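One such given next:

>
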Amino acid sequence: MAVWRSAFEAVGGFRLGFGKVGATSRPEDTDFCIRVGASAPDSAWLYVPAAVVEHDVPPGRSTFRFFLRRCFAEGAGKIELSAHLGDERDLGDERDLGDERSYLTRTLPTAFVRDLAGGRIARAAAILAGVPLAAAGGASGLIKHARTGLKSASPHPAAASATPDGASARGKTGVGAAAPGQRGEGHPGAGAGRRRE
């Protein structure tokens, strides 16, 4: 994913303390994209199939165990994300997480059927295992929210200085672009080492 520097700075960058911190994984990228979209409602995210991103995938992120932990963390993280966005922009808001709902109700079932029909049993089984774990993570997040409450963390303006000048995606009305396959990070069979997407 790449964004215009001006779009990054307009929302104060990523939230301080929210994301992959220690053993805790939260969806800081989803939070960031929602806030960028809200700050520039007439703009759009652009999908650029020709984009190429290379990054290192540690061996520990190529295991089924990591995949399962990540699914649980994603579910819990979405609840915390909702608290950061505020009561007026909750998980049911189509402006925010409508794509997430579509991914759950359309993309994953389609992938499950395709993988099953194609004989990719392990991938189909991963979907069956991952969805309920994400739901369990969400339930865990709701329980935590009910017991202790979740304080909203503000974006940290200083985070904007960490963006290199060249990190931008050009488009007529776009604020950014997502590289293909970004949802697949850490999926079973991804393999360790440098991955080209």
